[in-house]
Amino acid sequence: MKLASQKAKDLATSRPNSCRAQLFCAHVKLQFALGHVKATGRRSILVRIRDDMNEAAKRFDGSLVLAMFHAKLCFVLGFYEAAHLECLRAFGLKQPVDPKLEDVPPGSVNGGVYDDRLSSIYQDLSRLKHRLLLVAKAHWCLMTSEKQDGFLSVGLDELHKYYDEVYEDGHWATRTISDVLTSVKKTGSWRFWISPYCIGKSFRMQHSLLEHMYSKHPAEKVLRSVLDPKLSDDTDTSMDDNSLDEISVCKDSEDHYLFQFNKTDNIFERLFCSTPSRTDAKSFAEIQEDKCKEGKEILQKLKQILKNLPTNKLSAEYDKARPEIQCLLRDFFTTSALDYRIVVLTLVKSFLLTKLMKSSSGGDATSKSIDNDDINSIFPEVAVVRYVHKLFLSFFWIYLVWFFY
Question: Which ranges does the record mark as transmembrane (predicted)?
Answer without folding.
Answer: 387-404
